[in-house]
Amino acid sequence: MTETTETAGPAGPAGPAGPTRPAGLSGAAEAAGTARPHGQDGDETAPASPGRRIWVWAAAHAVDDLYQGLVPACVPYFVLDRHYGYVAASGLTLAAALGSSIPQPFIGLAVDRFRLGWLAAAGVALAGLGLGLSGLVQSYAAVWTLILLSGLGVAMFHPSAGKAAREVAGESTTAMGVFAAGGSVGFFLAPVLATPALMAMGVGATALFIPPAVLIAFVLLRNRPAAVAVQAAGRSGTDRWAPFMVLTGVEIVRSVVFFGVLTFIELFWIRHLDAGRGVAGTALAGFLVGGVAGTVLGGRIADRIGLVRTVQLGSVLAVPALVLLRIAPGPYLPLLFAVLAGIAINIPFAVLVKLGQDYLPNRPGTAAGVTLGLAVSVGGLAAPALGAAAEAYGPEGVFTILCMVPLPAVGLGLFLSRPR
Question: Which one is predicted more confidently, 30 or 397?
């Protein structure tokens, strides 16, 4: 039986009769989607449909997370062009992580307390400008500061965008899946777009990535919803911190698995499966493409069987997918399981974002800041521990460990409760 009570929430206010809204978007989405963008001297333009607005937010999420993915793609070229040591190189990664993780919960609190409809646009602009200018300055301190500011821009974007996307999506987990998948697409595109440019032009090629940020920031400002519509689409209820903390634990575990596979999958193919770099790169691409597909699929599944069951399903499916990836022979058969592992690991992603906002109906920005930002970044901090395991047991040892990591998420999932 479908858990219809799980995604039930207060309906948006009734509006005048009009065309039928897109499937999967609720009354709250219609309220947010019919918001008119701000114009000069009170001018208003024709409203965008809810379906179109969620795709705008998905595109903005892709551009924002593109800059998050560009940092690890650019670091090797800073080493080559600027002759940075490994400590200095890792310092650049640390700057991006510090800027993007620690501020997000506090920015989420500000988004929930004040009207900051411009913050997402400012955030993606700062993310692009910081990263884009980092290859043009010479001193290490300036590079480090600009990458820190780029990370801060990412942190500014997620809480505000997560709150706005939820107002557009309403109770549709499918729509939230589209928004979340945008981030996965951006992260996937980063090395694909950056590597040829960096090989041809060196680190100065980072400047080529400034225009997308400026363009999408303009689009977001142009389509900023009116405050009255945002209030109309708001939710009310009691914040439930206990299940939200359980959910955060599930997201941290999911993130540890995701970043673990992301970091070591190419080494697993090259050093354990004796494959060439081309096949190893295909494995990485397959895993990331599977992640995009899993994010969208998870939203559709949740609209059918409920949020909590979808989180539990994804956690359970991750275990056999990783086991089959670990034990499958040869360099080619495991490619299938790399895609399936990406799907399984990311099935809960968008669902966790929406479920977190359901647990904290009065703090959607805070919830998005944690589920889209802090918990994901904390999961990435496990990479050094997995690196120590790789030193001792090789990349195959890391994947043996990763087969067991989802088990705590399976256990935590049993303590998740339906949103009220």
Answer: 397
3 touches 304 (CB < 8 A): no
Residue 86: Cβ-neighbour burial (10 angstroms; 0-12, 13-18, 19+) = exposed
Cα Rg of the chain (Å, integer): 21
Cα 96 to Cα 68: distance, rounded to the nearest angstrom:
8
Looking at residue 380, its pLDDT comes to 65
Residue type, 338: A
Q: 3-state SS string over 15-77?
A: CCCCCCCCCCCCHHHHHHHCCCCCCHHHCCCCCCCHHHHHHHHHHHHHHHHHHHHHHHHHHHH
Query: What is the distance between the alpha carbons of residues 84 and 77, in angstroms, rounded to a whole number?
Result: 9
Average pLDDT over residues 158-175: 87
Given the structure tokens 């299938």, which residue do they identify?
A: 336
Supply the DSSP symbol for 268. Answer: I
Question: Token match 């899946």: residue?
Answer: 177
d(CA 54, CA 120): 14
pLDDT for 321: 97
CA distances from 198 to 92, 136, 145, 194 (A): 17, 13, 21, 6
Rounded Cα–Cα distance for residues 201 and 283 (Å): 27
- Compute the distance between CA of residue 44 and CA of residue 174 in angstroms, rounded to an integer: 29
